[in-house]
Amino acid sequence: xxxxxxxxxxxxxxxxxxxxxxxxxxxxxxxxxxxxxxxxxxxxxxxxxxxxxxxxxxxxxxxxxxxxxxxxxxxxxxxxxxxxxxxxxxxxxxxxxxxxxxxxxxxxxxxxxxxxxxxxxxxxxxxxxxxxxxxxxxxxxxxx
Length: 144
What we know:
Layout: H1 2-19, H2 31-34, E1 54-60, H3 85-90, E2 93-98, E3 101-102, E4 123-124, H4 129-135, E5 139-142
Parallel strand pairs: 1-2, 2-5, 3-4
């Protein structure tokens, strides 16, 4: 019972210290610590996109330089994508599948030349690389 009285007295003393604080004293607030910094919004925020546009083109062959350059386009392929330039350039990702490599030299593998009259190699001049880049291609694969 004596312990109980001691605990009650201790609780009464602790609460009385807080109760004696003057309530009419102005409270000082450190505004620098209590203020949360919010950066100003940018002048104009771009609209968020929830989708992307992919243009995919298959079987790209801008002529061949094998066995000679007679089958290359007369304008070196410069106008090859003229009709679809807007679609290719405006896509977020433009993907193309080449039917041959961009290579200036090289011959067909000898073991494949059973009929030399029908020998064919899928090869476009290296200089045609800029045509694909200018058309807007981001990614290219090789299909053959």
